[in-house]
Amino acid sequence: MKKQTIQFVRGLVLMPFLATSGSPLATFNTNFSLKNIAQSFYASANDDRAKKVDAYFAKRGMPLEGYGAKFVKVAEENNLDWRLLPAIAIKESTGGKFDCYNNPFGWGSCKIKFKNYDSAIETVGMNLGGKNPNTEQYYKGATTTEILHHYNNSVVPTYTGEILAFMELIERGA
What we know:
- The structure is a single chain.
- The chain is mainly α.
- The protein is 57% helix and 0% strand.
- It folds into two domains: 32 residues, no CATH class; 138 residues, Lysozyme (Orthogonal Bundle).
- Helix 3 packs across helix 9.
- The longest helix is centred in the N-terminal third of the chain and has 18 residues.
């Protein structure tokens, strides 16, 4: 009973903040989801890049729809092309349709399990951005083409071209 009372009081304290125009949640309508809340913190709702990513996934019924803002934010944090991670996810798992253990990138030959897509996007983005000491020799300071070469081109010679084609489709909104 005491725990419920504390939670109720916390709710009363937070409600005025959440309802004010300065709150990041104030712009939401009553039909929001947890994905939408997360997106508001990851990137601006008006970011055309995030909209293009989400539109690509939505048009094809891919589970990664709604993660566009997350992809853009992680790309910015890791100095990556904003289309790279979504394009890899398209190639590796059809945008999450055939992921393995919340791993839509096939990272670690699909043997690495992630708690959720957010964690997968953050981890792979950090690695491709050269911020992991274990993989920085391949990715730190690399161009998109060099990143793709190390990611899978040595196994699949057409890989780089395929990812670049997906990146172009995302950009065009095709």
